[in-house]
Amino acid sequence: MNTAEQALRRLELTVTRRLDGLLHGAHQGLLPGAGTEAGDSRVYVPGEDDVRRMDWAVTARTTIPHVRDLVADRELETWALVDLSPSMDFGTADTDKRDLVVAAVGAIGFLSSRLGDRFGAFVIHDEYVHRMPARTGRPALYGLLHSLMDAPRGRIVDDPPDLAEGIEILSASRRRRGMRVVVSDFLDARPDLDPDAERPWERPIRRLSARHQVLAVEIIDPRELELPDVGRVAFADPETGNVREVHLSPKVRQAYAEAAALQREGTRRALRRAGIAHLVLRTDRDWVFDVAQFILRQRRMSHLSPRRPT
């Protein structure tokens, strides 16, 4: 068994052991939705459950208020937009951003495949947005993840596709309702440090969310948030190849940290305005724990969300 195969088996085992238990039973995914199929009744919890889901027949029979849960639709299509641009070939902690991208896509894929959903991907790499067809089953998912792992490091190209273009392609290619996942660092070529400014990808992702459930997975390395006190350093822009030497004085490091915080806050606000679920994964943290916490938060909040038209 080669190294890539062993890595994928370890990833599947990690997801199965640490995340699969959260999805035991009903057909539920990362973003639990209202669905269309009636499920079981349970006791009404004041202040948490939506009264519109009250099961009046059971309530009358037991004299105790009950609500009826809805089971998510089956045999859905999950599509991921995977950012493998040069900025993802960076990492200073336990792993690099690209490896974390593969882990995130693998976790979503394994959780989707156990539910019988088809899983496919569009990959931003070099000057193209590559399409990997949606298929069911473990062998197809392994093939997709192998392709992501074996993809060459991103190279500098003229006029590469940006995240907004990738989202437009994802939105236009498959019209059937389902789940869409965007895995990226959400770094723009010319970042706007105004947190309230509209991001270049904001309108496309808002249009995408009008039809599908959308999850944004933001990949971050700690050195993108703050710089160490190491004196003079040569910085290379992976997207353009430009190199510049900078003396990391306390003033420079503080300005950098402030700008990075504004950039991240702008991403958070843009996704919130678009109504997108937002999962942050860092290369210096236990990503499985962060995914598990995200799933649990979404489950607790799902009853507060309005029912999506079907």
Automatic annotation (TrEMBL):
It comes from the Bacteria. InterPro entries: DUF58 (IPR002881), vWFA_dom_sf (IPR036465). Residues 40-265 form the DUF58 domain. This is DUF58 domain-containing protein. It comes from Nonomuraea aridisoli.
